[in-house]
Amino acid sequence: MEWRHVRDRTLLVEQRNLDGQLTAGQKVKAAAPRAIDLIAPLRQDLLAWRLASGRPPAGALVFPRTDGEPWRRHDWNNWRRRIWKPALERAEVDYAPPYDLRHAFASLQIRAGMSIPELAEQLGHSPAMTLATYSHVIRELKGETPSRRRTKSPAHARTVSRGCHATGKRRRDQRAKCGSAEG
User: Which candidate among 51, 81, 97, 111 keeps its CA 20 to 30 Å from the CA of 74?
Assistant: First the structure.
């Protein structure tokens, strides 16, 4: 992501990183660029990061390597090991992959009242896929008990049925409820 993609209220997604090579487009072929809501805390963090980075130009990467180039697979793995995992430990949150932040964002947007079609557009999904993925969040908002549904793994099924998947985080004091399986 380049600084030009950080707008006042949105982040523009129009390129992807393939092991250090930025390419136009997204994961799904022929997907149009999409705008994602830029929530206020993230906007403030990005503004502070830009200042701390010396106010780089619009075409500069938001999170470059030290040489200014895009991250490669090993950079990502090093970041997860050296930064992400210790940050979760300090916050006393069980390990979850960074991708779970996408699910947390979607769940929070549903709870804030965003419509499924609007959320689907931001996630780059069809409304049907978004509804299938996040229907447990909607049921929880209605006060319904999350139903057991067929999932990818027995551990995932236990996590979803206990309501632990919605935010992608499980505090250590909730282990008895959610177990140690990743959601």
Answer: 51
Query: The whole model's pTM is what?
Result: 0.65
Residue 161 counted as domain residue: yes
174 phi/psi in degrees, rounded to 5:
-105, 10
How open is the CA angle 48-52-57, to the nearest 5 degrees?
Answer: 90
Q: At what angle do helices 127-141 and 116-123 cross, to 10 degrees?
A: 130
CA-based R_g, the chain, Å: 18
With respect to residue 165, please indicate whether it lies within any of the assigned structural domains.
yes
Q: What is the mean pLDDT of residues 149-155?
A: 43
- φ, ψ dihedrals at 160, nearest 5°: -65, -45
pLDDT one-digit tens code per residue, 36-71: 898 889 999 999 999 999 999 999 999 999 999 999
For residue 12, what is the DSSP state? E
Split into its structural domains, the chain has a count of 2
In a domain, 24, yes or no: yes
Query: Does any domain span residue 86?
Result: no
Whole-number Å distance between alpha carbons of 65 and 21: 13
Beta strands in the chain (DSSP E): 10-13, 15-18, 21-24, 34-37
Q: Is the pLDDT of residue 74 over 90?
A: yes
